[in-house]
Amino acid sequence: MKNNSHLFHLKVQKIEQICLFELSWGQGQRLTQQVNYPTNLTLLYQEWRQAYLCFYQSEHMRGRTVGGGVVTLTVDWHAELVKAESKLMFEFHRWLRSAELYEIRATIAQVSQELVKGNPGVSEAVKVFLTCAPIELDRFPWEAWEIGTEFASAGAIQIIRAPLNIKAETETPQKKQHQRRARILSILGDDTGLNFQADKDAVQSLLRIAEVEFVGWQPEQTPSQVIQQISEAIACEQGWDVLFFAGHSNESDMTGGELGIAPGISISINEIAPQLSAAKKRGLQVAIFNSCSGLNIADSLIDLGFSQVVVMREPIHNRVAQEFLVRFLQGLAKHLDVYESVMEARQFLRMEKSHTYPSSYLVPSLFCHPGAKLFRIPAFGWKQRLRQSLPTYIEAIALAASLTLSVLPPVQEMLLNGRMVTQSVYRNVTAQIPSEEAPPVALIEIDAESIYRAGLPNSQLQPMNRSYIGKLIDSTRKLNASVVGLDFIFDTPQKDPPSGDRDLGTAVRRAVDANMWLIFGAILEPNREIGTNEAIGINKWNWTLQGYTDAYHYLVEMPHPQRDCRQACPIAYLMSLVQTANQEMTELPKPQTNRVTNLRAELLNVIQKKHPEKGNLPALLQLRSPLGLHPLIDFSLPPDRVYTKIPAWKLLENPDINKFPLISKQVVLIATGSDERLGIAAGQPDRSPAPPAITYWTQQDWLTGGEFLAYMTQHFLTRRLVMPIPDIWMIGVVVIFGKIAVFAVNRQSKLSPQLRRKIIAGSVGTVIIYGILALQLYISAAILFPWFLPSAVFLAYVLPATRKKHHV
Predict the structure, then answer these.
(1) What is the pLDDT of residue 508?
(2) pTM, whole model, 2 decimals?
(3) Alpha carbon distance 483, 573 (integer Å)
């Protein structure tokens, strides 16, 4: 069982001229004493109140009515108030120090001393919950009673007021309240003759550690609208920790106190009792009424089960109320509890404002439910912020589903295809298709028509008739092609026809002697490239080049960052490098058949050592995949802007340079078409289903290996490398922004249907704008930002937050 020996309950009742002091504590201990009530104490209080009201002037009070006579201009009310306070406090202390109350004072002081001795270094205080009856006794400044001074008690003794009648239990704050920032509702009432700007500024100073919302009347509102607005705000489903009211108020025994919420409009505590009860169940613990005459208000709210209520027992001057509030809230901001904050504010008024605002420190009082723990704004550190940022059930499902989908290759391929089609449509609609004179690549394709016209039997298609390939090389030589790539593997001798290897070798030698750069295809093995076998007699590596054709059909094959291009190099990159070097350098080695050193090694050495500082070549040499990202093939570009497709038969039957004037400026790639009889081996045609974006442009069903290589080559030549941002990265970013948006929505105490629709429309609009921006950045900056999964996660975070109920 919790030890309550340091909690005292002191009940003071006045019956005619006798006051009964009853002190109870611990396990049923009780002390009872009777003491005569000094009749002049009431008179001294009335004189003090008269001087108090006259000094502060009724028009600046936060109350409706003021009694006590007429202000006389010739009277020095400051001096009169100081004198009246001295008389009142002297008589009040003399009465409380009477011999009859000695045992009560000694008991409290003794427990205070024992608490200090038993817990050295612990600042726990003795709490005395004081209950007075009738209300005339409540009007005295009991907080000024210094119980332990005559016993030299070193421990703190806190005098906290409690009402005579308390029917409701106080609510224990729910666990979730400790996992979020404190929430404060500030009601600004009737400001007739007052100025609430200082109050507002003081409350806003807590924004660093708490969520603050203001409600109050507006000139265009009707009385019923004002009352409804305040009632709904109090009963907000999210709940509040602190309720603050600034304005006019008055005592009222029948209604529990009245609050002026607008000029000529008041509501009683009894009228909003259902909303206050709902707010209490949702965590509302502290009510602060920076207004006049709040004794009835305090009694009513504690009776409803509120934990703590801070009120002004007397009418309060506007500037005094503001000074008190500033200091009180500064205490809360330092994470002091409510009692400590009230005492700091009272001490400030007493020590630093006693001349400007005499007696003001006697007016504030804290009422507390005896079973409640004193409230303080909890420190909201990184642990609480982390806990608050954890996903909800719906958010967790959306997050888990999106992350799972983001690592499944079939799903990623489907999303990428959909994005490429959308990107193609956007590029077409916005007329952002490249308009160069001609594509940088010429693709000579051996298609079904070429096979038919050449009369090639099926036995000479796999592997492809090399004599036929030699004829194509001869034709490109006659058209002055400077860089020619061959998407074929010549690793074994060809038997049909027997002259195939010899014819191809002859064509290769003639092309090399004409200074043509020939680049043969190869297959990449773990440690080397496997391509044309020199023993066959087709070529030598001293005067031809080789690059591997292996690549995933949706990604640009980049040079490996850890591998020297002298040993292994993608054929598309190598063709682009040679073409660019031919255009920007004059000191390149010549591909002649009388060379005796490896051409690729010498070529790369010369390029790296002697390349110009400016131009496309330095950029091409430095191309690498940033942050491990692999660039995509940009299928949003229509094929006719990437390469010129020339059927092989047309090149052979019309070898006129006037028919193919651009080949001399293009990289030429000789490859097979989509005919299923062609390919690496029987039953393995060199083709793949055309991506939907290609189908959008050309309606073709297949995309050949040569076409994939042509796209890659064009990307290298134009430095068009589209970097895809991984879904996981963007989902992480979206989670942050989504949570920020959820916090912003949750800070709204009320979501009207109109506001809810605006938030939904804004969220959907944000997703649409992001999608359009992502489409444009793809074209302008060559960055692919994923859209579908991040957008789905964002909406899954924000939209459920708009479904909360508004009030009970």
Answers:
(1) 97
(2) 0.65
(3) 12
